[in-house]
UniProtKB/TrEMBL annotation:
Organism: Coralloluteibacterium thermophilum
Domain of life: Bacteria
Outer membrane protein beta-barrel domain boundaries: 11-180
Name of the protein described by the UniProt record: Porin family protein
InterPro entries the record matches: Beta-barrel_OMP (IPR027385), OMP/PagP_B-barrel (IPR011250)
Gene3D superfamilies: 2.40.160.20
Pfam families for this protein: OMP_b-brl (PF13505)
Keyword field contains Signal: yes
Signal peptide: 1-23
Length: 181
């Protein structure tokens, strides 16, 4: 009987430890990113600086849901066919994705994300005459690595591919975020 009474608290503590450890990896986070974006479609194939914000909720060490906004800059370039001259497009995107993490050690994780984004590619006047203003909802996905400085601050390097109808936009970015614990 004494053994059973001693086992009950031990079992309760053993069951509570994973929950407590899980709670340390949970929380809302909010961050910003800057990167390089390359935009490629039938008319333009160029690069520019991108920036954006992202935030989400991490449910446990392995899974989060994340929302983001990205401005891919003002992509300028020679149009194809060459008789169109030069043109520019300003792609922007709002999206939601599922993020899977693979912790490697206490402070480092690899991750992958996949989701949908609602985008708008606003071309300049010359290009607008040819293709019009374009927008839609398409998939995006990516892979990256994250380093946790402490329980609140993290930095990530991230590669993502955004589909823009018949165009593709690749982004490589560095982000810094804060987790509210």
């Amino acid at each position: 009987m004494k053994m059973t009474k001693a086992l009950i608290p031990a079992i309760a503590i053993a069951l509570a430890l994973p929950v407590a450890a899980n709670a340390a990896d949970r929380g809302f986070y909010l961050g910003g990113k800057v990167g390089a974006a390359s935009y490629e479609d039938r008319w333009i194939d160029e690069n520019d600086t991108s920036f954006g914000v992202y935030g989400g909720f991490r449910f446990n060490p392995y899974f989060a849901v994340e929302g983001m906004y990205t401005d891919f800059g003002n992509i300028r370039g020679s149009l194809t066919p060459p008789e169109l001259g030069r043109g520019s497009v300003e792609p922007r995107s709002f999206g939601v994705s599922a993020v899977g993490f693979l912790p490697i050690g206490n402070q480092f994780s690899l991750f992958a994300n996949a989701g949908l984004h609602s985008w708008e590619a606003d071309p300049d006047e010359r290009l607008r005459e040819v293709i019009g203003k374009r927008s839609s909802t398409d998939p995006f996905y990516g892979v990256g690595a994250q380093f946790d400085f402490n329980s609140n601050w993290s930095m990530r390097a991230h590669y993502q591919r955004f589909e823009f109808g018949d165009a593709d936009n690749d982004e490589i970015s560095l982000g810094l975020h804060y987790t509210f614990r």
